[in-house]
Amino acid sequence: MITKKAQDTDKYKRQWIYTESARNAWSSIIEKYKSVNPEGTILLPSYIGWSSNEGSGIFDSVLNSGMKFEFYGLGLHLEIDFNDLKNHLSKDKSHLVLLVHYFGFIDSKYNEITNWLIEKNVFFVEDCAHAWLTDLVGGSCGRKGSFSFYSLHKLLSVATGGVLVSNNPEQDIVNESNPFLELNYDLFSIYKIRRFNYNYLVSLLKDVNGIDVIYKELNEGICPQTLPVIVENFDRTTLYHKMNEKGFGMVSLYHTMITELDNSPYEAANSLAKKIINFPIHQDVTVADIDAMVLELKKILNA
């Protein structure tokens, strides 16, 4: 029998719990894991930043939990070393594995990796702090782990707010009212303009020597948070300051690694962190802004 309209009120729902921040959401997930595996280990990607103002969003929660932790390998373009991940889990599959979707992008082997984790019954969580429109609008991540979490202010013009999302709620779903913002933003339009700005900027950066775009292709379903590049043959910090002095809001995310990654054997921590800089491509940026930004970039690099 087919009813005239959908009747199942719980079908295709996900449980949303609003938190003060993505960090708080991640802390709550760790506590859930700890209650079941108090002697367990959290397996983290080997690219975790720290700042004097904010500390480390990912790692502070791990330290505060008192749980053991290890790092799995990431390459220069933040690609997961799948063999290294498997080697860690070959010893103990009870680890909590964190997958981080840096800057709104997913790993090129995302489906292969997550399918393997599911097959091996490994508990994993998706950090969608930068990627919640890649999840909500693009449908490209966030649904395969037991939990995912978002950071609202990373993509919208709001001051704070996070979301903890359970993909396998054990109780009746009650989605709370949102204390941080009314979700009347046109998320699809934001998704589209960010993608347009990203592709347009990439087209201009192809002609700039010394700039290596980390994600050269913007696949369907991906909503970028920023446009990360590797700066070659020029001091990244100098470029950051000069561009910001000219009014172009560059950021240098993950420029300083947590001390636990000092002397790391992995490229992401020991090389990328020294060279990465991020261009703004958010919904307020216009084509004229991008043209002016690239022109200034060329002036600085060619000076």
UniProtKB/TrEMBL annotation:
Claim: Transferase is one of the keywords in the record: yes
Entries under InterPro entries matching the protein: DegT/StrS_aminotransferase, PyrdxlP-dep_Trfase, PyrdxlP-dep_Trfase_major, PyrdxlP-dep_Trfase_small
Domain of life: Bacteria
Keyword Iron-sulfur: no
Molecular function in Gene Ontology: transaminase activity
Name of a matching Pfam family: DegT_DnrJ_EryC1
UniProt KW keywords: Aminotransferase, Pyridoxal phosphate, Transferase
Family according to the record: Belongs to the DegT/DnrJ/EryC1 family.
Name the UniProt record assigns to this protein: DegT/DnrJ/EryC1/StrS family aminotransferase
Lineage start: Bacteria, Pseudomonadati, Bacteroidota, Flavobacteriia, Flavobacteriales
